[in-house]
Design brief:
The protein is an alpha/beta fold. Helix content is about 40%, strand content about 30%. The protein has a single domain, classed as Ribonuclease H-like superfamily/Ribonuclease H (Nucleotidyltransferase, domain 5). α2 crosses α3.
Length: about 150
């Protein structure tokens, strides 16, 4: 059987959306409680903030590297999470004021019960346990961060 490149391209146009939708339904349901945290790291002599979010089962929802730790950065991180996941019942954060301000700025999060916890408290321990694998997975290489291929 001889198949041209054009035939493969047409098949891709036709079947790629169907396969994408099928794989999306196979993805496990994520928990309704989010645990958010940020950690300071230095890249090229400049401070950066690695924002992390996990659900109540410990699955990593998203990570984002930003140069700021303010309301705009927290809002950007929430918006990014809300693109891929449903609105959480309870987001657990540390005492950083930027989280509360970002939640107040996003109308979709007005109805959620925002819980602020102390970093050492057992409630936020889930995100603290996930810090090691995140640091192992992302390593600095010059001025950029690169994925090392290590997954937990």
């Amino acid at each position: 059987m001889v198949v041209s490149h054009e035939t493969l391209r047409q098949w891709n146009i036709k079947f790629a959306p169907l396969l994408t939708e099928e794989f999306r339904h196979r993805d496990p349901r994520r928990g309704s409680r989010w645990f958010l945290d940020e950690v300071c790291t230095e890249i090229g002599g400049r401070k950066h903030w690695l924002w992390r979010a996990v659900d109540d089962t410990g699955a990593v929802l998203d990570i984002l590297l930003q140069t700021h730790r303010n309301t705009h950065a927290a809002k950007t991180f929430f918006e990014r999470l809300l693109i891929n996941y449903d609105v959480p019942d309870v987001p657990h954060t540390d005492k950083l004021w930027s989280y509360g301000a970002a939640i107040r700025e996003l109308p979709v999060l007005h109805a959620v019960k925002h819980t602020q916890v102390i970093r050492a408290a057992c409630c936020n321990n889930l995100i603290e346990q996930r810090a090691g694998p995140t640091r192992e997975e992302w390593r600095p290489h010059g001025e950029e961060w690169h994925r090392t291929g290590v997954r937990s």
